[in-house]
Amino acid sequence: MADTKREMESAQGGTEARQGPRPPARTDVKNESPHLSPAEARALDLQPGEVAEEEELEEDVPQQVAIGKRFGDWRTIASFAFAVLILGFAASKVNWPVTWRVLKHANVGLFVLAFVAYYISFPIRTHRWRRLMHNSNHGALREKIDHYPTWDLTQILYLSWFANVIIPAKLGDVYRAYLARRWIGVSLSRTVGTILAERILDLIVLFPLLVAAAFLTFQAKLFSANDTLVSQALFGALILAVVAGTVLTVMWRAGESVLRVLPHRFHDVYLHFRHGAISSFGNEAPALFGQTVVIWLLEGARLTCILAALGLLAPGKIGPAAAIFLALGSSVLTTLPLTPGGLGVVETFIPTVLVLLGVNGGFSTGAAVAVLDRIISYLSIAVFGFILYIFSDKARGAPPAPPAPADQPAGLVVAR
Hints:
Helix content: 55-70%
Radius of gyration: 24 Å
Low-confidence stretches: 1-33, 403-416
Strand content: under 5%
């Protein structure tokens, strides 16, 4: 009966033929059902237990990732207001003539090199995400993922970064899954799992690198009675790294036996978390791990070039280890849901660390480093991302529906 009703509605409304993955359901049309047909569920390669979750995501996600509406939302306005307060506090500690003098003597060539180092990471990030999606899908979808144009996939990734710097709470990650669903036809829930796998890879690489860079950077201060703040911060980071490693190890080894001790309402959450964390790796874990290391080393290269551009590299005091610590620490702070892209928080963190390292000019010189770094890691994303959002077809509409077979009138669904 349900199939017959769907056929009648399709024939009457002249809706598109369902011969492949469709765009997410339009939630702005009242009473339009987001439910997937059996053909759509098969096209998305969904297991029976995943269909209900996919339908729920198709109904909810478009409203969550409407960037125009989210940008004017009170939560976004409040997060920017909080960022302005932090920036105002940091600015009150800066001697701006000193900062301007440091900036005037910056080496433009090294600044451009920092810019290049940052943007070189995007093709690597795109390739890593493609492999994660490849491993978590099968059949025709896997083939489509492998042949989807790299430039188009990079646009989707970059638009998600743009969303993250103008909207709090990392909604850009959900936006990326939404765009992948519209343009590639992959499952929303499974794509969220691949993005989660990305975060796990970053976590596995980031924390050990961060702790190692911190020890190398602050080794002279770790055992000083006058610098207990540094020791406490490093000890806290070490604890987080151990906890994260323990959770991942338990999840990997225990499998679904963990469900015995979890409340029933958390079962689906855990299963999809584990699916995203493990199945997306396939047999490519070493290669994915290596790509992640390169990505984070490029982050460190960006800060190294900026410090060199300002003449602040000092052997034994401020070197590549300090640059890596600044880059990784800044990246961790951007994940906080307080402000979009860590705005205000990162700009305070960088000068504070450089003050601890005893840089000449103190907070004001550190502010110059923060200005150059955030031109690359925040302002360029906001500007280029806005241009891409305006002109790229990826942020508008959806790919045209495939044409119906010649022997099937448009709008009809063949009974199965």
